Amino acid sequence: MPVTTCIFDAYGTLFDVAAAARILAEQPGQENLAEVWPKLAADWRLKQLQYTWLRAVTGDHTPFWEVTKDGLDWAMEASGLDDPEMREALLALYWELPAYGEVFEMLATLKAWGMATGILSNGSPDMLDGAVEFAGLREWLDAVLSVEDVGIFKPARVVYDMVGKRFGTAPDQVLFVSSNGWDAAAAAGYGFHTVWVNRAGEPMDRLPAKPSNVLSDLKGIPDLARSL
């Protein structure tokens, strides 16, 4: 069956998660952060993801905002940063993450070609609403789906079930796009067509399933979706 629906992970896929640390590091008086912001941004993201996986395994679910704060606390300590004002500034900026430059044209093209579009994210509804509004993406998205509706983080299969329930699609009618290799792999195992947006050129994760396609950015998504 042809692809009718394109679903995107949010953080790191549509929205630049490193931007909070980068933007704050560029401001006057943030010399300590400027020295370590790439490490802090990478540690923050890694711990944020690790905490979702661990909570999914143990059943100790909490909103994504809590693991975001916990991940930042770990990352700041790892970089020797003990600054409550810096912490609050970084958290505030996380609600205002910019979209990657190609996102707007990519989504507009999909909509012009008659594709349904949506987000499927670990983010909590308020975080996702804020990100979508700040980036100005609302008009190009048919749905913004949060794991809070099922109470467990990706890659639990019940999360991917949400797409079919919302859009009335079979798995092979969906192109799922994520910057997380493990997410794209799990979605491929679920039965979606998948794209891993591998901006950093990382190795493929050793998992039971593999992403159907690997791209360096989102520019090729419309042509790929129409070809499937």
How would you describe this protein?
With 228 residues, the chain is α/β, with parallel strands linked by helices. The protein folds into two domains: 5-15 and 98-227, Rossmann fold, CATH 3.40.50.1000; 19-94, DNA polymerase, domain 1 (Orthogonal Bundle). It contains nine helices and six strands, in the order βαααααβαβαβαββα. It has helices at 19-25, 31-58, 64-78, 84-94, 103-112, 125-135, 157-167, 181-190, 221-227, and strands at 5-8, 116-121, 143-146, 174-178, 193-197, 213-215. Strands 3-2-1-4-5-6 form a six-stranded parallel β-sheet, sandwiched between helices. Strand 2 (116-121), helix 6 and strand 3 (143-146) form a beta-alpha-beta unit. The longest helix has 28 residues, at 31-58.
Give a short overview.
By secondary structure, the chain is α/β, with parallel strands linked by helices. It has helices at residues 19-25, 31-58, 64-78, 84-94, 103-112, 125-135, 157-167, 181-190, 221-227, and strands at 5-8, 116-121, 143-146, 174-178, 193-197, 213-215. The chain has a six-stranded parallel beta sheet with strand order 3-2-1-4-5-6, with helices on both faces.
